[in-house]
């Protein structure tokens, strides 16, 4: 085994935040601790390269008896998905040099069991940055929402169908918008905060229309842009935009409930849409989902995303923050709109890919 540092940096979840955007200095604590490098049978030591920052992490900080995952406890390493490189292994499924994804957390190194690790195929021209972003939970969530929850599953979503995507310049929203437009050929209206993001969605992503929800005329603009035909599918990433879209639904429309980023910092104060009875009038469906319950579909979806990457139908758009010590402040970029595409932290330089490398997505 190659020489390892005696110590490593970890960022701990220190204190539960109240309502509002978490204070990084109060919520987290950066520590230096000894690195355990003697492995037990079945364990794998991973050097983390990228940390995935996702809105769902806010929910992990607050106890919720109905959550799909246990809440964080103060003193634990902050939980997150990671991509990295195997340094040492006492499991025959993994070897030093393998590129992997795991739930490694905010730390420079992690020790995992094989069950929680997925190999990354770097023989496909895939980078570790791809694996944690468009081929990670970000892209998988878009695939699940569109092809399992939305109308594409039944073939009801046709080329030219009108689709609205909120949070369209964010991690999952941007991938969903690309798939709706470039793969399925829909008429896509993207919603984002700020003219720069809207310009990017229109000119770089190629959406038909991009609307700034911060505009004073946004509600009127949305109604005029949708037109009399109404919205066939709405990919919802949260906020009051849901109420506006409910007022503009086509008959038999679908609403895909992906997330609620605007409400994640307001526990106990969030309210539901006042006009939900519009679902009855439009004979529409509104369906939420949690992507981890479709884990059996991940390999298939990753293969498809890799193919679309090669064809240029989707792109890996990322905002990268350097240094694990900056993870606490970087997380808040999700609430302030400071990122375009996937937000991640680079812990260490990404190693170069080589042909014939091990691993498979």
From TrEMBL:
SUPFAM superfamilies in alphabetical order: GroES-like (SSF50129), NAD(P)-binding Rossmann-fold domains (SSF51735)
Gene3D superfamilies reported in the protein's UniProt record: Medium-chain alcohol dehydrogenases, catalytic domain, NAD(P)-binding Rossmann-like Domain
Stored InterPro entries: ADH-like_C, ADH_N_2, ER, GroES-like_sf, MDR_fam, NAD(P)-bd_dom_sf
Domain Enoyl reductase (ER), residue spans: 26-345
GO MF, one example: oxidoreductase activity, acting on the CH-CH group of donors, NAD or NADP as acceptor
UniProt keywords, alphabetically: Oxidoreductase
The protein's name: NAD(P)-binding protein
């Amino acid at each position: 085994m190659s020489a390892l540092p005696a110590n490593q940096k970890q960022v701990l979840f220190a204190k539960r935040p109240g309502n509002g955007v978490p204070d990084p200095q109060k919520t987290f604590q950066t520590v230096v601790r000894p690195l355990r490098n003697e492995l037990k049978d079945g364990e794998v030591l991973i050097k983390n390269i990228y940390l995935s920052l996702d809105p769902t992490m806010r929910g992990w900080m607050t106890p919720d008896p109905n959550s799909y995952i246990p809440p964080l406890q103060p003193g634990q390493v902050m939980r997150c998905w990671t991509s990295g490189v195997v340094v040492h292994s006492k499991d025959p499924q993994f070897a030093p040099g393998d590129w992997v994804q795991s739930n490694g957390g905010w730390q420079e190194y992690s020790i995992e069991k094989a069950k929680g690790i997925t190999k990354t195929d770097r023989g496909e021209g895939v980078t570790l940055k791809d694996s944690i972003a468009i081929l990670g939970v970000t892209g998988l969530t878009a695939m699940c929402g569109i092809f399992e929850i939305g109308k594409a599953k039944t073939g009801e979503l046709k080329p030219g169908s009108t689709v609205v995507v909120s949070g369209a310049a964010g991690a999952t929203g941007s991938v969903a918008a690309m798939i709706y437009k470039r793969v399925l050929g829909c008429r896509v209206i993207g919603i984002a905060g700020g003219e720069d993001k809207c310009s990017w969605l229109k000119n770089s992503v190629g959406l038909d229309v991009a609307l700034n929800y911060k505009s004073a005329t946004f509600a009127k603009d949305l109604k005029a842009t949708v037109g009399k035909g109404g919205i066939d599918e709405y990919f919802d990433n949260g906020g009051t935009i849901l109420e506006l879209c409910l007022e503009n639904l086509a008959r038999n429309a679908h609403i895909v409930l992906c997330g609620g980023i605007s409400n994640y910092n307001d526990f106990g104060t969030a309210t539901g849409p006042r006009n939900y009875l519009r679902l009855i009038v439009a004979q529409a469906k509104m369906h939420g989902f949690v992507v981890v319950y479709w884990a059996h579909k991940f390999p298939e979806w990753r293969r498809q995303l890799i193919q679309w990457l090669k064809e240029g139908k989707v792109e890996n758009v990322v905002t990268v923050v350097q240094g694990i010590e900056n993870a606490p402040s970087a997380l808040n970029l999700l609430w302030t709109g400071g990122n375009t595409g996937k937000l991640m932290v680079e812990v260490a330089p990404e190693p170069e890919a080589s042909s014939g490398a091990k691993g498979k997505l």
